[in-house]
Write a structure and sequence with these properties.
Largest interface: A-B, 39 and 63 residues
CATH class of one domain in chain A: Mainly Alpha
Strand order of the largest sheet of chain B: 3-6-7-10-1-11-12-13-14
Number of domains of chain B: 3
Bound molecules: zinc ion
Number of helices of chain A: 3
Distance between the termini of chain A: 43 Å
Structural class of chain B: alpha+beta
CATH superfamily of one domain in chain A: Glu-tRNAGln amidotransferase C subunit, N-terminal domain
Order of helices and strands of chain A: HHEHEE
Radius of gyration of chain A: 22 Å
Radius of gyration of chain B: 29 Å
Number of helices of chain B: 16
Largest sheet of chain A: 2 strands, antiparallel
Number of strands of chain A: 3
Strand content of chain B: 15-25%
Shape of chain B: elongated
Helix content of chain A: 40-55%
Strand order of the largest sheet of chain A: 2-3
Largest sheet of chain B: 9 strands, mixed
Oligomer: heterodimer
Number of strands of chain B: 15
């Protein structure tokens, strides 16, 4: 049962900024199908009284007090940047969007 | 760019269409730290000096929710008459844009912390319009990008972009209205009044700086049109970058006219974000709106759900201050204001200033008169907000006090206030520097009174005959002769005494 199309793979690849070749579209569509089918089997055992679960531990309300803690120095923060300018991270220009 | 000639007249728009609005307001909370890390939440710091592995999205860094931010979110919800969720989660909103180094924004999706409320908005004529609140949810702000190489720092033609992540992770509450229908011609005004009311509310609660000019309060306006007689909503546009109250009104009005023009020509409205240009008052096309599923939201695995107990919610409800509308009602009663007087006070944004002037010892009516009349006019002339004038409520109260003591006439008082507005110091300093003094020497006043009575024998006769209201003409003449420097009350006493009426 094929549930995911080549077009959907191409769309997702676009959203994830991944370059995917034509051959790979077929490969990934097939592989994603296997993954989705496997996950779908979980639905077969989940009964109505079992709510969808996103968190494995039954813990809620974990909060931090609103107190300032030291972070990174600017030098440390910028150390991993591919390029910097005026103490800012320098990135290629952003297409098709206004900030 | 649509030429002005092609755009439909506003009255014509209203004859053919009903506007539908949806307003999304983002509020930066004024917590000490960011939403998910202990970095300082501070405006205007040196670039990239308020950052850590969490807000820079470094591998392995784990977020922890700021409890104060959650409290603020719940309090805002309660003030907006909302329900508080029994249980809700954060969600990842995935997108690739360098303003979020994590490549996702931690937000809330279909489980907002508060939902289903409303805010009563007072319009310019004093009428109230209730704006329904769909939801308010918690999220984090993005970093700030600047574009290098293009004209005017905009993205078109830019060669590269520079990122400052000090703002990345600052707690943000997004407040979303229900579709606002039935507003008709008042839609632009309602949009402005709603954001203004929200600003006042949030300021009174002390949860945010609510500075539109600094971006701590930001509004996106969704506008669509429904042809008269039809139901359902038309295709909407979302205008961003609207950063003043006046701009909100102008942007909504322009979008209504632009969309109506397109629809009349048989064209379709493109669902997109648009940008408002303050200088032209027009909106221009931004990007096509991504569908919600394109963000591939999913529950945030690194944060546990939030389940506010009802005890906690009620405790937070107890911390709500007097709401602006409650305060208006109280002030109206205490100061004995008519509905019109209250409306003028609110429209002039003078309530806080008048209250502070009253607190400094002035009578409400004198304080109101100064701020709503004279000082509003001065603020208008200078093109600034009333609160931005360089005169304090304490200084206004001092001038009112001096008038009450007969040491200043109203005319001289205005001179003193003008001196304060020119940054020439405290009222008493201006008075000393300019040698401003009320003529209170009875002998020189008496001479002026005698002169005025002699010049107007008819009036003098009437006063002697008991028609004391005729004294006004004599007092006026004396005030004129002394160039307004005399104390009118004292002059009147002298006039009446001279005519045997006292
Ligand atoms: Zn941080």
């Amino acid at each position: 049962m094929s549930t995911i199309s080549r077009d959907e793979v191409a769309h997702l690849a676009g959203l994830a900024r991944l370059a995917v070749s034509e051959d790979e579209l077929d490969t990934f569509a097939g592989q994603l199908d296997v993954i989705l089918d496997s996950v779908a089997r979980v639905g077969e055992v989940a009964a109505d009284e079992i709510p969808p679960t996103s968190h494995a531990v039954p813990v809620t309300n974990v909060f931090r007090t609103d107190e300032v803690r030291d972070g990174l120095s600017r030098g440390e923060a910028l150390a991993g940047a591919p390029a910097t300018e005026e103490n800012r991270f320098r990135v290629p220009r952003i297409l098709n969007e206004e900030a | 760019m649509t030429a002005v000639a092609e755009i439909m007249d506003y009255d014509e728009v209203l004859r053919r269409f009903d506007p539908v609005l949806g307003l999304e307001v983002h509020v930066e909370l004024s917590t000490a730290t960011k939403m998910f890390c202990g970095c300082a939440n501070e405006f205007g710091a040196e670039p990239n000096t308020r950052v850590c592995p969490v807000c820079l999205g470094m591998p392995g860094a784990l977020p922890v929710v700021n409890g104060s931010a959650v409290e603020s979110a719940i309090r805002i919800g309660l003030a907006l008459d909302c329900q508080v969720a029994e249980w809700c989660r954060f969600a990842r909103k995935n997108y690739f844009y360098p303003d979020m180094p994590k490549n996702f924004q931690t937000s809330q999706y279909d489980e907002p912390i508060v939902f289903d409320g409303g805010l009563d908005v007072v319009l310019d004529d004093g009428e109230t319009f209730r704006v329904g609140i769909e939801r308010a949810h918690m999220e984090e702000d993005t970093g700030k990008s600047s574009h290098v190489g293009g004209a005017s720092g905009r993205i078109h033609g830019a060669e590269h972009s520079l990122l400052d992540y000090n703002r990345a992770g600052v707690p943000l509450i997004e407040i979303v209205t229900k579709p606002i229908t039935g507003a008709g011609e008042r839609a632009p005004e309602i949009a402005r009044a709603y954001v203004t009311a929200l600003r006042d509310l949030l300021r009174s609660m002390g949860v945010s700086d609510v500075r539109m000019d600094q971006g701590s309060l930001r509004c996106d306006a969704n506008v669509s049109l429904t042809p008269k007689g039809e139901s359902g909503f038309g295709t909407r546009t979302e205008t961003k970058n609207v950063n003043s109250f006046r701009s909100i009104e102008r942007a909504v009005r322009f979008e209504m006219r632009r969309q109506a023009s397109l629809l009349e020509n048989g064209s379709e409205i493109v669902q997109e974000t648009r940008h408002f240009d303050e200088s032209t008052g027009e909106t221009s096309s931004g990007r096509r709106k991504e569908e919600a599923e394109d963000y591939r939201y999913f529950p945030e695995p690194d944060l546990v759900p939030i389940a506010p107990s009802r005890e906690w919610v009620e405790q937070l409800r107890g911390t709500l201050p007097e709401m602006p509308w409650e305060r208006r009602r109280r002030v109206q009663e205490q100061w004995g204001l008519s509905d019109e007087e209250l409306r003028d006070l609110v429209n002039a944004s003078a309530l806080d200033l008048v209250a502070a002037t009253v607190d400094a010892g002035a009578s409400p009516s004198e304080a109101r008169s100064w701020w709503v009349a004279y000082l509003s006019q001065r603020a208008n002339e200078r093109g600034v907000e009333l609160a931005e004038l360089s005169v304090t409520p304490a200084q206004v109260a001092r001038v009112i006090e001096l008038v009450g003591e007969g040491k200043l006439t109203h005319k001289l008082a205005r001179q003193v206030i003008d001196g304060v507005l020119e940054d020439r110091g405290e009222p008493d300093e201006v008075i000393a520097a300019d040698g401003i003094e009320v003529v209170s020497d009875d002998s020189s006043l008496q001479a002026a009174v005698d002169e005025a009575l002699a010049a107007q024998p008819d009036a003098a006769e009437k006063i002697r005959g008991g028609k004391v209201q005729a004294a006004g003409a004599i007092v006026g003449a004396v005030m004129k002769a002394t160039q307004g420097q005399a104390d009118a009350k004292r002059v009147r006493e002298l006039v009446l005494a001279a005519c045997g009426q006292q």
